[in-house]
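Translate sequence into structure tokens.
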Amino acid sequence: MGRRINRITLAALLLPAVTVANAAGIGATVANPMDLKPAYANQLELKNFESQAGESLSFTGNPLFADQVSSGSLPKVGDRLPSEPLVVMPISQTGEYGGILKGTALALESGTSEILSWRQVNLVRLNPADNSIVPNVAKSWEWNADKTEITFTLREGHKWSDGDAFDADDVVFFVNDIMRNEELTQSVWGNWAHGGETVKIKKIDNLTFTFIFAKPNPVFLHYLATSGSYFTPWAASHVLKQYHIDYNENADEVAKAAGFESWKENFKTYYHKWKDAVTATEKGLTVPTLESHILAKATDGQTRAFVANPYYFKVDTSGNQLPYIDRHNERFLEKQIWTLEVINGNIDQKSQNVDLADFPLIKENEAKGDYSVHLDDGQIGPVLVFNYTIADKSKAFAYGNANFRKAMSVAINRDDLIEQLYLGLANTDQAMPANIGFATAEDRAYMTEFDPAAANKMLDDMGMTARNADGYRMAPDGSDFKIFWEYSLQFTRSPEFPLLIAEYWRAVGIDVLLKEVTTELVRQKSDLNELEIGMEWDLPFEWTLIAEPKVYSAPWAIGGPITGATWVKYWATNGAEGEKPPVWVEELRTASLAFASAKQGSDEYMALGAEMVKLNLENMVLIGTAGAVPQINIVSNKLANVPTWNLNAYRAGFAYSQQTDQWSFK
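Result follows.
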């Protein structure tokens, strides 16, 4: 790997805080299991719990809903829960109801995935202790022999947040009427297109259904529990059918009355695979969810408020319906004031997009803010991806040239960058998937050595020898050349990062114009093939790489393309539109698809993985800036039942595996 830089000694700051676990409570907890032996992590199915406990479990609801129950506008808790609720053993204590979990993000649709992960649910979840898969919305599952089909069983009596029945029909509607409807979904996302074909579904009964894949899909459960955790495989059909042309022949008229051209534009305001897109509007009040908290009121663009879901499907070992915490409050704040808000105790949990450079200040104010700050396992620093197929052809001669990209890599002074931004606590690695056995130390160090002489030679060899009056290199045809870098703080993570990179590049004669824009605009320009430098590449883990091969091959993204948009269009239209990809891009695509189907750990698997690494590095697709960057994680000391975080990244679902629904205030 690249060199480990650690010139700053932070031993005093890194000493762990001493805490005393509170194992008190009526029911069994992880700290005091009372002889319970759960089959999965810290949870049991109701029948299994009652069998081990030797008694039936009675249920208690959150006092928040007492008035509604008394008035008859809300059923009693026993009628709101499934007949088979999931029983959770709290980490340290039976929680107290109440409180507001306070968080912050940059803006609507910008850095909100951490707070989404507080309430998010999927069919299964990840047990952070050992990365195993445990039941969640699904009660159970069963694979066929070759793992091309997986059958899930839901919980009888599970209800949406509006009290309507949730069952297999809602999953069938998601697959057949949304994902497989080409008017709504032109490009299927993630693992749902495993094997090159969109998943199919077979309904067995109201509680049972089977997903059918074109090829063996052994990592599907890990996909659901990690990077796919944000994209749930169901939709509230009882609400959404009225906006769908296949179920309402007047859907177009309804849409036009609402100001849309057709039903599909209207439908997309009520359904989006990214759930925060719906709760970013007043539509989030009308579309029910299975999450632990539901939208309480329409956002004003400055805040977003959520309240406990009265129909949530989990209870603790005393029969108390989860979640314990009444409300979630999300504020959209300028990043520059986050640290002050943390120190003042106004944020209960924060990790996403927090700058490592702020760690000393945050750490030394732990007592004042009544929180604990940890450095979780390292992530990667920001990644730089030049748009090879950019619509502006005056830039394509450079961005499409591997030597230009390599020159830009070795022009970066990573030692200086890591010292200034990451306290010296990072590696000088290229951008690589995490925890993979087929990448060598030489791979991680490829083109990371600061070498301005080599950068200058590569640029000279490209014909960029002439300089303008300001001393910057011109294009080979004598025209001015300047990188126009539009960036979002969500991806640069700090305002200093683009300033430093621009300084390094200017030192080898490449002028850079910087402009901070919103995440929304970055994504729009990326979709239009107009963005010059993409940065929205999240660290993939091994299971992500298998489940979503597009994350390490064209277009190097799960959502909109980071680069190679015209290549993707070429493949999608069988060559009728777009641009034919270079040979190496085709080779990488072939290798990545074969890798996803190879037996994990086999010789073929390792060889294909190594080939993917080789092709990405030789063509310098992803320019890495730092590796193993520790991730700051701030957690209020007022919170109980917060487990140790073993994974902390977008692709691991941020707090999703930390069971925020059983957090409570002390």
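Note: Confidence is low (pLDDT under 50) at residues 3-25.
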